[in-house]
Amino acid sequence: MHKSGSASSLGPGGLDLSQTFFRQIERAAPPSPTKRHTKISVVGAGNVGMAIAQTILTQDVADELVLIDAKPEKLRGEMLDLQHAAAFLPRTKIQASVDYALTVGSDLCIVTAGARQIPGESRLNLLQRNVTLFRSIIPPLARYSPETILLIVSNPVDVLTYVAWKLSGFPSNRVIGSGTNLDSSRFRFLIADHLDVNAQDVQAFIVGEHGDSSVALWSSISVGGVPVLSFLEKQQIAYEKVTLQNIHKEVIDSAYEVISLKGYTSWAIGYSVANLARSILRDQRKIHPVSVVANGFYGIEGGDVFLSLPAQLGRGGVLGVANVHLTDEEAHQLRDSAKTILEVQNQLGI
């Protein structure tokens, strides 16, 4: 497949103008070897993959962006469409191919590819098809970029992150699922909307499965550094638990509503994953609720399982899991969420 990248040759003879157009200054030293060239590969050029790619470009996260997909015509069209915006974007080399060899040396590989559910198809059968798809995606990524970090976005994200971990042979800190990072953003938005404050001033986590068994950590919510529930109790301000439950239900239903209205979700997950990419590649050491191997945390046991916990992210991938205080009820719900994921994993036989 033809790849269009940055080039300095013009004319039928392929004359290299880079040395002619610019004159080097005298006694110049070569570029510093410590300057890091950052490369991101995105597998899957669908609505989600392209929203992630577009957001990564606008936020100047990478020096090089590679798109991988099984459909060469659509892939080339998406690549050209992004390249034609070069005058409006930070300088990033954009390439695309059906060949995974182009991903070589990636710092971060983001996987969005996944099979679509056929009407009447069971969730388990869909998952089995996605596992088969991952068998053709993960090994070549690991082979061409053995030091990369894998960031899985495909759903069901927790189980497929586990699958990617198994297929890659990578240490667990270098395999991450996008998990409930977006769910938590929706959660923060809804709380901010209720309190009429900026969502960036709200600290709140959804953890556990990216799905119906997710857990809202009400006990750890703070606004501007003020713990919300303990503040209400000290001020003897009554609140109804059903109100909190309705907000959590609205978080769970949010994606379904967007899908029913426009057919898919894209922009929010694009911003969410670009946000994770920035934290990882810029070594920002920020705390994100993402899908990580959860054995031993908060009493979770029964086998290897990935689910979302508040994790610190940096160049090494997962640097650690925050020791957030959970109430007994929240810890119980989190363990139940882990059991839900394990039950699905056990049916896969991986």
Write the layout of secondary structure elements.
Elements: E1 9-10, E2 15-16, H1 18-21, E3 39-43, H2 47-58, E4 64-68, H3 72-83, E5 93-97, E6 108-111, H4 123-144, E7 149-152, H5 157-168, E8 175-177, H6 181-195, E9 202-203, E10 206-207, E11 215-216, E12 222-223, E13 226-227, H7 228-234, H8 241-262, H9 267-281, E14 286-293, E15 306-314, E16 317-321, H10 328-348
Quick description:
By secondary structure, the protein is of the alpha/beta class. It has 10 helices and 16 strands. The longest helix has 22 residues, at 123-144.
Molecular structure report:
With 350 residues, the chain is α/β, with parallel strands linked by helices. 41% of the residues lie in helices and 18% in strands. Strands 5-4-3-6-7-8 form a 6-stranded parallel beta sheet, sandwiched between helices. A 3-stranded antiparallel beta sheet has the order 9-12-13. A 3-stranded antiparallel beta sheet has the order 14-15-16. The longest helix is centred in the middle third of the chain and has 22 residues, at 123-144. It is globular and about 75 Å long. The model has no long low-confidence stretch (mean pLDDT 87).
Provide key terms for this protein.
350 residues, alpha/beta, 6-stranded parallel sheet, 16 strands
Taken as a percent bin, the fraction of beta residues is: 15-25%
SSE order, one letter for each helix or strand: EEHEHEHEEHEHEHEEEEEHHHEEEH
Low-confidence stretches: none
Largest sheet entry? 6 strands, parallel
Individual helix count: 10
What do the pLDDT scores average to? 87
* Computed Rg: 22 Å
Q: Structural class, judged by helices and strands? A: alpha/beta
How are strands sequenced across the largest beta sheet?
5-4-3-6-7-8
Q: Could you tell me how far the N terminus lies from the C terminus, measured between alpha carbons in angstroms?
A: 34 Å
**Global morphology:** globular
Share of helical residues: 40-55%
What's the number of extended β-strand segments? Answer: 16
